[in-house]
Amino acid sequence: MDEIDGTILRALQVSPRASFRQLGEVAGVSEQTAARRYQALRRAGVMKVVGIIKPSVRGQSEWVARVRCRPDRLEPLARSLARRRDVAFAYVVSGGAEIVCVLRAPLGVVGEEAVAQVFPTRASIIDVRIDLVLHAFDLGQPASRWTGFGGHLSPASRALLAGGLDTPDPMPVGDDPIPGDEPSTDDRAGGARLSAEDSVLIDALTQDGRLPHRELARMCGWTVGRVRRRLRTLERGGALHYDVEILPERLGFGLSATLWLTVLPAALDRAGAELVAHDEVAFAAAISGEQNLMVAVTCRDTAAFYDYLRTRLAAIEGVTGYSVSIRMRRLKQNASLVMQGRLIQPV
């Protein structure tokens, strides 16, 4: 990956449905070159833009599960968990046969009930610890936060991208409104709540968050104007956001780890906000349990990770203890499975 690819990835994190014209202007290349670079990264399985519905819209909370299982049952359990719709992230960590995953389930579905539903083969499991995600730190931008690959954007580039957020058109082909296509009562009153009619739209965006309005309209049997308005309503209401899934290993960043920090309650907000601003950090959230801050970190190698621990992490006030889980293998990255080093669509 070169600087152009890095800038395109960074621009997508700021505006996931930005047009190729905007991406080209930000990266200093033509619209066609930006489209070709993006498609090459996507075809290679290195990155993917997906639409994600906020769990709370469906009455769900997010839970972090740490599952220790029998070594001879690791692979079947890993495959089973990764293919579940209620599992958002899953990966295998070092230190024994352990899987860490993020579950989406209602607040009332906890403890033994959650274990029975998500982990039906209890004979394979040695121990399960489930903690509630209390607050995810996001810097006001819900797309993936890992930016260690570079591609920093100037204020002018960010302003250019922000100018296209209200009228997303991810493909070079125009997507003009159809004359006479007026808002319906459902569009005006639906708000950010999901309806049965949204299912095809959401499923399509889960596969590709950059599908153009015309293609979405064809799939849903709607007009282009209705698709545009519905997306805008869901996005502005906070129900729909986009994630830029990236496989760091394919970009030369071979060490990923999860930090389990113990932080003084009075310092929790400040520590989380500082950590999520680090280029090395992909995710930071306050969770229940004794270790009350979970941080996902990606570095180029072991030396870089050690430097991160002794400098950047060491400078965070209020941290009284930590442990490290080294990520050995990714199983699922939000909406995509990870197989043979590629992001693929789940069946």
How far apart the termini lie comes to 29 Å
List segments where confidence is low: pLDDT < 50 over at least 5 consecutive residues.
165-190
Mean pLDDT: 87
Q: How much helix is in the residues?
A: 25-40%
Strand composition percent: 25-35%
The radius of gyration is 21 Å
User: How many DSSP E strands?
Assistant: 12
Report on the biggest sheet.
Answer: 8 strands, antiparallel, barrel
The helix-strand sequence is HHHEEHEEHEHHHHHEEHEEHEEE
Pairing-aware structural class of the strands and helices? alpha+beta
Count of helical regions? 12
In the sheet with the most strands, the strands line up as 2-4-3-10-7-9-8-5
Shape: globular
Describe this structure in words.
The chain has 347 residues and is of the alpha+beta class. The protein has helices at 3-14, 20-27, 31-43, 74-82, 111-118, 155-162, 185-189, 199-207, 213-220, 224-236, 268-276, 302-313, and strands at residues 47-53, 61-69, 87-93, 98-105, 125-136, 240-246, 255-263, 281-287, 293-299, 319-333, 336-339, 342-344. The longest helix is centred in the N-terminal third of the chain and has 13 residues, at 31-43. Mean pLDDT is 87; it is low at 165-190.
Helices and strands in order:
Elements: H1 3-14, H2 20-27, H3 31-43, E1 47-53, E2 61-69, H4 74-82, E3 87-93, E4 98-105, H5 111-118, E5 125-136, H6 155-162, H7 185-189, H8 199-207, H9 213-220, H10 224-236, E6 240-246, E7 255-263, H11 268-276, E8 281-287, E9 293-299, H12 302-313, E10 319-333, E11 336-339, E12 342-344
Antiparallel strand pairs: 1-6, 2-4, 2-5, 3-4, 3-10, 5-8, 7-9, 7-10, 8-9, 10-11, 11-12
